[in-house]
Design brief:
heterodimer; A: about 250 residues; mainly alpha; globular; B: two-stranded antiparallel ribbon; about 0% strand
Chain lengths: ~250, ~325
């Protein structure tokens, strides 16, 4: 794989995680548990989408085949999407949604902070824009995990169930493969083991305060980075892409 | 002791002198009731209005449009918040106001009981529905109740943004492929008359209007606002090559306004009475969100109480 190919794949992975999470969060719009949370969820979806757009545009430039952000978002099939499976999991109840975001935020913030020092100027610039938002997201999702865990019996139970359900999808965030190795060697991607340490520390701290139990690292799901998704993925894309595909080649 | 008659006179004098009424000021009971009803209906409209538009967030045909739509629906939630706060200044809690919506006791703008069937509906809503709402809201920036007027000033800036974005969606569709243009025209056909209904009954059939005008809650009549909206929108439709679905529409050189057809008031009354295409779905969606969110709100309260107790200890 040429370094350009690897950079394209790496950038696309970063983008796809955010795009698919944003798509899921967008489903909440108008249905949140309280008006303030509706606003907060939409904000999260918007921030993720904004970052995804920057990354998709850049991925298209790196690839050099003239694919735009919309091309990459709307005209790829599910086997070509490289997000981790965590992002495509259904929203479930608010505990599942918040736990999913928390597990991602705790990874996303240190990743963006480390990417500030990437040898790739574009990625460093995109990270520069994302750090402030990512900081805010992690704070907000951590607060909810703590409220749930240390709130009522019901909220504690729901948060623990969500954690237990979603834990198996966290391994994928830290998988090492030849693309990542190459990017790390080139100083473009940060050392993922350091990101994992930071993630793990945040998770422990927040779960301790929330009086929630960290699930054991049993079997970890894999496949998303290779385009091997859950059955949810096809439906996400069917919904997201159908108008665009029904009227090919037009402006919106 | 000052008698009520005297207080009434002082109150009306204040209104006539264009002074704002503030929460702590004395006000006639009927004025308070009228405002509580109007502001809460307005708040509910913002919140229920999130549903037909939210319906298209996951399907927006480009990422840019998706981002714009997300931001718009988020603005509407913010409008709901300001307005619920304005109701609270009159001594009615947000919970109580929302309960009235959920039980079906309170009304919201009937326009949101129509379905969003195609992407062009998102353009039509921004252009026509936000456009019609602005007419009312610009007037309300000068309404006599201070907190309501101030909320409106903030809201109006965002609404005019929404209107322009909606119009732009329509403009792009109208100059796009034949299918896109057809989609835009179809959306205009479906949203035009309901948008005109947003201004409410004709002046002759609007019993509360005279009192609202005297109190300067309203400052222009339903028919006046409707006419300004029509005059403006007909020209905008012309610019992008879409046709207003009213065969009687004609420029009147004498009045310098457009003459136009007749609103189907039977349809209007039907939708207000709960028989619109989506009344049941809208209320069901609000109730579902509220019920499923109960444990979240309870957890937040319980945690805050625990935290406060620990701090005190
Ligand atoms: Fe609004
Ligand atoms: Fe609006």
């Amino acid at each position: 794989m040429s370094q350009n190919n690897a950079l394209f794949t790496y950038t696309l992975r970063l983008a796809d995680d955010l795009l698919i999470l944003s798509q899921r969060l967008g489903e909440w719009c108008g249905h949140g548990p309280i008006l303030e949370e509706d606003i907060a969820l939409t904000n999260r979806a918007l921030d993720h989408l904004g970052e995804a757009r920057n990354l998709l545009t850049y991925a298209g430039q790196v690839e050099g085949k003239g694919r735009s952000e919309d091309n990459l978002a709307y005209l790829r099939m599910e086997r070509q999407f490289t997000n981790v499976k965590l992002m495509e999991q259904p929203n479930g109840d608010y505990a599942h949604t918040m736990v999913r975001s928390f597990l991602f935020d705790a990874y996303h913030l240190p990743l963006m902070q480390a990417l500030l020092k990437s040898s790739d100027e574009q990625l460093a610039a995109i990270a520069g824009k994302a750090v402030k938002e990512a900081t805010y997201h992690l704070r907000a999702s951590s607060e909810w995990i703590i409220r749930f865990g240390d709130g009522t019996e019901e909220s504690h139970q729901r948060a623990q169930t969500a954690l237990d359900d979603l834990w198996t999808y966290t391994g994928e965030l830290f998988e090492i493969d030849p693309v990542l190795e190459e990017m790390t060697k080139a100083g473009i991607a940060p050392d993922i083991t350091a990101i994992k340490e930071s993630w793990s520390k945040t998770v422990d701290q927040v779960l301790a305060e929330a009086t929630l139990k960290r699930p054991a690292d049993a079997f970890m799901m894999t496949g998303g980075r290779k385009g091997l998704h859950s059955e949810h993925m096809g439906f996400i894309l069917a919904e997201m892409q159908h108008v665009t595909r029904a009227y090919p080649g037009v402006e919106w | 002791m000052t008698d009520v008659k005297n207080l009434d006179d002082i109150f009306q004098a204040k209104i006539d002198a264009e002074q704002k009424i503030e929460p702590k000021d004395w006000m006639p009971d009927a004025y308070r009731k009228n405002l509580i009803r109007q502001i809460s209906q307005h708040a509910h409209s913002e919140v229920v209005g999130m549903l037909p538009e939210g319906n298209w967030i996951t399907r927006a045909p480009s990422l840019k449009r998706k981002a714009i739509l997300l931001a718009k629906v988020q603005d509407e939630a913010g409008h709901g918040l300001y307005l619920y706060s304005a109701v609270e200044t009159m001594g009615v809690s947000r919970e109580q106001t929302i309960d009235d919506l959920l039980s079906g006791k309170a009304k919201y703008s009937s326009i949101f009981n129509y379905p969003t069937l195609t992407w062009a509906d998102i353009g039509a809503i921004g252009w026509l529905v936000d456009g019609a709402a602005i007419m009312n809201q610009v007037m309300l920036c000068r309404t006599s109740y201070g907190p309501y007027a101030r909320a409106m000033v903030r809201i109006c800036k965002e609404e005019s943004f929404h209107q322009r974005q909606g119009y732009e969606i329509m403009a792009v569709l109208a100059k796009g492929s034949p299918e896109q243009k057809e989609m835009a025209q179809d959306a205009l056909n479906r949203w035009w008359w309901p948008s005109l209904m947003m201004f409410g009954p004709t002046d002759a059939n609007s019993p509360h209007s005279a009192q609202s005008m005297k109190w300067k809650i309203k400052r222009q009549s339903n028919d006046e606002l409707r006419q300004i909206f029509i005059d403006r929108t007909v020209q905008q439709a012309e610019v992008i090559g879409l046709t207003i679905p009213d065969p009687e529409l004609k420029w009147n050189e004498e009045t310098k306004h457009y003459d136009w057809g007749t609103i189907d008031w039977t349809e209007f009354n039907n939708v207000v009475a709960g028989n619109g295409p989506c009344n049941k779905e809208r209320l069901a969606a609000r109730n579902k969100a509220h019920n499923e969110g109960a444990w979240v709100r309870e957890a937040a309260v319980a945690y805050a109480a625990k935290k406060a107790k620990r701090k005190a200890a």
